Amino acid sequence: MPAPHPRRLWRFTLASAVSATLLAVVAGCEPSHAGTAAASTPTKAASATAAVSSTPSGKANAAGGGRTPGSTPSGGSTSVGGGSTTGNSVTFMGKSTVSIGGGMTDASAAAAPFDVRYQYLVSPPAPSRDLYTASSCPNGLNWWGCVDGGRGGIIPTMEARAAQATYHGRPHPQTMMWTWFELPDLTTNPTWQEEVQAVNRVDLLTRYLNDYRFFLQKIGTSHDMIDLEPDFWGFARGMGNVTKVPAQVTAAAPQDCANQANSVAGLAHCLIAMTRKYAPNAAVGLHLTCWDWPGNVARCGRDYVALGATGADFLVGEVEAADAGVNALPANGGHNSFWTNQKWAAQLAYWKQMADTVGHPIVAWQIPLGNMRQNNTVNHYKDDKVDWLFSHMDQVASAHVAGLLFGPGTPDSTTVESDGGNLFAKTIAYRNSGGTPLK
Questions:
Q1: pLDDT digits over 149-188, tens only?
Q2: How far apart are CA 244 and CA 231, in angstroms?
Q3: Which CATH architecture has domain 7-432?
């Protein structure tokens, strides 16, 4: 297969003393990940770690969830992700229509009837198991678990805010979705190859799986969604057969994954199995990273089946990470990322084939927020994806897309708060129309 698509992984500082008020202000404005144009040669994924300090200096996104394992994303009576089955309807996370959400502030979340908010968790794993029960965090510790007070406090804080969301002054609970994004930080500034090789070290993978277990225990019985590891599965595919790329799974988590294979595929299976064990009501999805998909969807499907996606609840799809106006800047390569109807048709066909292959729907994530009424300045860049998607919702649903989640993928990109109210207006009109049924 072609070499992995190079990525720019954006990191932002997390703070141990970040208050709920600060999180409310910055939630949804923290891009941690962005893509570049395809290249024939893999390049290092540049990253800056998410340092945790004792002073509020960080940013965080937000989102929400719930689940009961479903069967297929299409046809007949289907229940996916915690919904009920009625007649011939398809449901996902309790919704029978395509969900709308993204990364945003509390005020923005109340400005339209959103269904989901998402939150990155980005940092190296805890350096010691003792931190999971410690009464306080050391100053300057670079670990997501020290954000917002006590160990793992960001989990109940964000869950409560999603559960207590309102619209027009009335309760409008939202689902919390977490983008779990720790593998890039297992080692310092790794190349993409080194990122994959790191999971073959028992010491590193043990810390990683300990952290994931702690994360799941904080979720407990909550109905959240979990997006597993953007980029990594694509990097692993670039190293060869995912069932052969080594990972020290059984030694790193013998109490949870002793029966899994010692491979990247075994690691994916392990993460899904741990989710079922420690967060039984959560929906879990593998991030869909097949940079070679044009003309090669069948191989992508086989790889994700091998990774265990049939035993998950959804796949997380992407389009462009940055607004078209950002991508058009000479410093960013000056490429054209406005999409034609033909490009959308190909993307939706790819998602539909993947959904059919694994038997679960697609949740499209971090979709650029720009619109043509922007002026191509910082946080006000042009794009056309929001408007296109809302005007083609039948095609979206027919591709087995269960959710559209919008958010900035680079610091300069347009945000929910800076798009001139476009996403609010589109979401309100969509809900007033009754929404588009899932298929």
A1: 678 999 999 999 999 999 999 999 999 999 999 999 999 9
A2: 18
A3: Alpha-Beta Barrel (3.20)
